[in-house]
Amino acid sequence: MRYKQLDLNLLIALDALLEEKNITKAALRLNFSQSTMSGMLARLRTYFKDKLLVPVGRTMQCTVLGDELAGPVRGILVQIENTIAFRQEFVPHDAQRHFRIATSDYSVSVLLAQLIRRMQNLAPRVTFELMPLLASTSDIVNSGQTDLVVTFEDYASQEQPQEHLLSDTYCCMVWTGNDHVGEWIDIKSFAACGHVTPVFGAFRNYSLDERIFRQYGVERRLQVITPDFESMAEMIVETDLIATIPTRLATIFAKRYAVRLLTPPIALPSLSLCMQWHRSLTEDPGHSWLRSEISALAKTII
Questions:
Q1: For 220-297, where are the E strands, in sequence order?
Q2: Is residue 289 part of a domain?
Q3: What distance lies between CA 160 and its chain's CA centroid?
Q4: How far apart are CA 215 and CA 24, in angstroms?
Q5: How many domains does the chain have?
Q6: H helix or E strand, kind and range, residue 210
Q7: Which pTM value belongs to this model?
Q8: Does residue 90 form part of some domain?
Q9: Which residues, in sequence order, are CB contacts of 225 under 8 Å at separation 6+?
Q10: 128: buried, middle or exposed (CB in 10 Å: 19+, 13-18, 0-12)?
Q11: 184 is in which domain, residue-wise?
């Protein structure tokens, strides 16, 4: 199909090229040969009168126009996909559908692992792909590469729909053999200890507790930085390190590791977990069903 002399099939190729910034990877993604993808890029360059992608050293980078086209092209394809797909009645037990959820290990341990177990009987042919939060929530939701993002509300985008799921508090976690810390810890001793903290994604976002401590003027001695919450528990065992971690997750870790939980030396605000999605999916029957299942499950978690 053509629109104003543009073969609309080329938009799919353009989307892949602008995201991958690599002809070979874009070809593999679309199951094309490299020569076919190169030919498509040549046709796109002719149509837009712009190189779109240019070599920089051993990589390729988008031109200014390429960067400007990336978002709108992705939005068009997301809208088309969601307009023509999955509009029939959704029957969970018979449905075949693949859902992609971008999330952290916190959400997996506290909520989503229970969801997957529930789906084994409720919707046995529905499949799930859990993806890491490698970019900002806004970029992930707007890209259309996932069906849902489950994240803390502080990280959520203000541009797309969201729904609150559950709240949590913070606690401190230490190894059971750590005899430098008793049943409680004051702020001076807390600041003097070595700490382990997570940093998330390509943008290296510090955890919310680190931001809060900085606001209070508490400078922790960050001795270990990890990519997720789970590895924090691993790091403190047989050490004198302290981890400040959401309480629901810490309670789960206390059943797996030799750790004990303490009240933080300063009052920390609560955390709120939410799910977020592209507005074009709001009325989709299957997506609406998944959101209702997650919401109902979250209400059962005390």
A1: 221-226, 242-246, 259-262, 271-276
A2: yes
A3: 15
A4: 46
A5: 3
A6: helix 208-215
A7: 0.70
A8: no
A9: 196, 197, 198, 199
A10: middle
A11: 170-269
